[in-house]
Backbone:
């Protein structure tokens, strides 16, 4: 396991916001107190059953039928006080156990819902998710697979925090409850002339300490192995999802063998790490199983001399053995829960590093470009330098003004930085400096449109809500974008990312622009999947349906360039930053 102090600090930092800072803290603390109260009730009933066990076996030894029946079904007065029957205790125990489980699950789902919302808010705020994706180092234990961290790691953290945390607190209560019983029952023994009071307590302590030390020695590598297993599992699952999302491309390339080789490679890493976990768990299980089996008879062996000498009745022997087992079990809590603690430690580390990466990304959100709203509806770039995450500069000290109402085509060789320039103007590219004043109501259309899950209506209205536009307006936008056959399928909920072709996806994106009616539209090869006639028709539709709109397009094809008034060429060599050169069309 990782160090105890970082683990405890990380767990506290993850748990504290919900119980001390959230708007649910009062109900959360109330639920937690109720759960602990029920758990302490179960501990109290186990103490009662310990004394009941003594009286029951004494009744058997004495062949006392009345006591036997009373202790089973009603109650009986004993030297220990009024002893309830087993049936009454069992009914109460079952009811308490049921509500303990119910309230625990209730708190689990509330806590998980709150943590999931909080992580989503922080991950999406200031586009932290985008910066993390741009800067993560796949060779490090950085923020890989954020989907798994939010979907699975939060669930496992909440489950382990409640299950193990409550178990540990109840373990302390059990220890306090039974150590006095065991101390009184065991009495004193003399070893080498030295009288040792409560000797069975010391035997249990020595036994538990030895077992804990051995368990930690054998199980220490488990946390790192669990950490890596979560990562390779997520990598394998993500590869399968990527394959499913790109089946057509794989089929056209006939890349089945290569895909299979990649998937087998990832699964081999998964299986190899799993084998390492299996070997470690096997060694740990051998140790803990032997420890538990010996613990079953060990108290009887230690206490049996008093029984055979007649100083301890059968009921006293069973109570002593039971109390010893309880005390030894509480001292062995670390041993019994070591695999779960290793898994919890790995989850805490993953969530802590994810949270730290989000905080770092948001801390850098105000750095780089100074984004402003244009005062005159023109686009202004002043002293703009654009770089890659590696630090390589694509553009340096660029000053530029694009006036509204005039269409511009941005050209340049592939890889020169045209799309990155658009990302900087959109305010999502974090690497660079300078001042960018963007007109209000600007709309950006990438070459590969995002198609969310849900109904076609939701797909077309994105990023607005599905009910933000009139149904007739949505149908008309699809028709104007060249998709009249889809106008009557708005309520169909399908995997539209798979159903639509590349050209259809680009038409859907143009339908979104027709609905939004922005004053500026930036098109990053947003019609590259269409033929020249279709491109010309769609540009004409945009100008007709959105009068006065300013179109700024990235394009390589002459047919698209001819649809604009001004050309802006991004000229850059591989070794030096580029510069922008403006000229009037036609070329």
Residues:
């Amino acid at each position: 396991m990782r160090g105890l102090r970082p683990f405890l600090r990380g767990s506290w930092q993850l748990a504290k916001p919900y119980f001390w800072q959230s708007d649910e803290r009062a109900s959360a603390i109330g639920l937690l107190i109720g759960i602990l109260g029920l758990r302490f009730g179960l501990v109290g009933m186990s103490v009662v059953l310990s004394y009941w066990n003594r009286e029951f076996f004494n009744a058997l030894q004495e062949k006392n039928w009345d006591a036997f029946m009373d202790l089973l079904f009603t109650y009986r007065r004993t030297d220990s006080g009024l002893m309830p029957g087993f049936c009454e205790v069992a009914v109460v125990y079952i009811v308490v156990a049921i509500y303990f489980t119910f309230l625990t699950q209730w708190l689990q789902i509330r806590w998980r819902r709150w943590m999931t919302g909080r992580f989503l808010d922080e991950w999406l705020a200031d586009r932290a998710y985008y910066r993390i994706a741009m800067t993560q180092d796949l060779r490090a234990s950085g923020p890989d697979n954020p989907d798994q961290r939010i979907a699975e790691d939060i669930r496992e953290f909440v489950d382990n925090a409640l299950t193990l945390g409550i178990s540990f607190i109840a373990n302390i209560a059990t220890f306090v409850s039974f150590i006095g019983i065991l101390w009184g029952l065991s009495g004193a023994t003399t070893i080498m002339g030295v009288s040792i009071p409560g000797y069975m307590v010391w035997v249990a302590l020595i036994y538990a300490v030895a077992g804990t030390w051995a368990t930690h020695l054998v199980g220490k590598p488990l946390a790192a192995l669990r950490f890596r297993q979560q990562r390779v599992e997520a990598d394998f699952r993500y590869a399968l999802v990527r394959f499913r999302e790109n089946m057509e491309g794989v089929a056209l390339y006939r890349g089945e063998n290569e895909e299979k080789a990649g998937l087998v490679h990832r699964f081999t890493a998964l299986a190899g790490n799993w084998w390492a976990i299996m070997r470690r768990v096997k060694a740990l299980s051998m140790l803990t199983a032997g420890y538990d089996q010996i613990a079953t008879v060990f108290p009887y062996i230690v206490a049996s001399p008093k029984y055979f000498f007649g100083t301890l009745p059968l009921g006293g022997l069973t109570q002593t053995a039971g109390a010893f087992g309880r005390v030894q079990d509480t001292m062995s809590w670390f041993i019994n829960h070591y695999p779960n603690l290793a898994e919890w430690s790995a989850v805490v580390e993953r969530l802590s590093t994810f949270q730290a990466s989000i905080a770092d990304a948001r801390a850098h959100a105000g750095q780089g470009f100074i984004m402003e709203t244009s005062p005159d509806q023109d686009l202004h770039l002043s002293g703009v330098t654009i770089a890659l995450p590696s630090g390589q500069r694509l553009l340096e000290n660029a000053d530029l003004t694009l006036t509204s109402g005039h269409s511009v085509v941005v050209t340049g060789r592939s890889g020169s930085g045209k799309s990155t320039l658009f990302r900087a103007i959109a305010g999502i590219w974090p690497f660079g400096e300078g001042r960018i004043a963007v007109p209000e109501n600007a709309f950006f259309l990438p070459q590969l449109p995002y198609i969310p899950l849900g109904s076609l209506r939701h797909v077309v209205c994105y990023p607005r809500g599905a009910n933000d536009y009139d149904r007739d307006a949505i149908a008309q936008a699809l028709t104007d974008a060249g998709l009249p056959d889809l106008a009557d399928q708005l309520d169909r909920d399908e995997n539209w990312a798979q159903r639509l072709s590349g050209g259809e996806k680009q038409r859907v994106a143009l339908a979104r622009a027709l609905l939004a009616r922005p004053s500026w539209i930036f098109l990053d090869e947003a019609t590259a999947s269409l033929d020249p006639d279709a491109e010309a028709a769609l540009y004409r539709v945009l100008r007709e349906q959105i009068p006065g709109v300013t179109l700024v397009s990235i394009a390589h094809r002459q047919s698209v360039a001819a649809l604009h008034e001004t050309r802006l060429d991004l000229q850059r060599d591989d070794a030096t930053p580029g510069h922008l050169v403006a000229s009037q069309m036609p070329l």
